[in-house]
Write a structure and sequence with these properties.
- By secondary structure, the chain is an all-alpha fold.
- It has three helices and no strands.
- The chain is elongated and about 75 Å long.
- The mean pLDDT is 77.
Length: 103
C-alpha cells in the first residue's frame, strides 16, 4: 500500500509540475505561430496557394464530371450538369443548397 501511495503522490507531483512548464511552452509556441501567421510573406504565399488550389480543383471537377456523367444515374448527372452551368465549386460566387458560399 505504501508503494501505491508513493506512486500516486509522485504521479500527482509530476502532473502539477508538468502542466506548469507545459503551459509556458504552449504559450510560447502559440505566440510564435501567431507571429508567423501574421507575416505578410506567409499570408501572400498562403493566398496564392489557395488560389492555385481553387483553379486546379475547378479544372479537375470539370474534367471528372464530363467523364463520369455518362456512367451515373440521370438524377446525379442532372445535378452535376447544373453545378457545371453555375460555375462549379471553384467559383467563389457559388452558394450551396444551404445558402453558404464555397469560399
Amino acid at each position: 500500500m505504501r508503494y501505491r501511495l508513493t506512486f500516486i503522490a509522485g504521479l500527482a507531483l509530476g502532473y502539477v509540475l508538468g502542466t506548469r512548464a507545459g503551459r509556458e511552452r504552449y504559450e510560447k509556441l502559440k505566440k510564435s505561430a501567431r507571429e508567423i501567421a501574421q507575416n505578410p510573406a506567409v499570408r501572400n504565399t498562403a493566398e496564392s496557394a489557395a488560389q492555385q488550389t481553387r483553379t486546379v480543383a475547378g479544372k479537375a471537377f470539370h474534367s471528372v464530371s464530363e467523364k463520369v456523367e455518362s456512367k451515373v444515374p440521370d438524377s446525379v448527372a442532372d445535378r452535376v450538369r447544373n453545378l457545371r452551368e453555375r460555375g462549379g465549386p471553384a467559383d467563389d460566387a457559388v452558394t450551396d443548397d444551404w445558402g453558404t458560399s464555397n469560399t
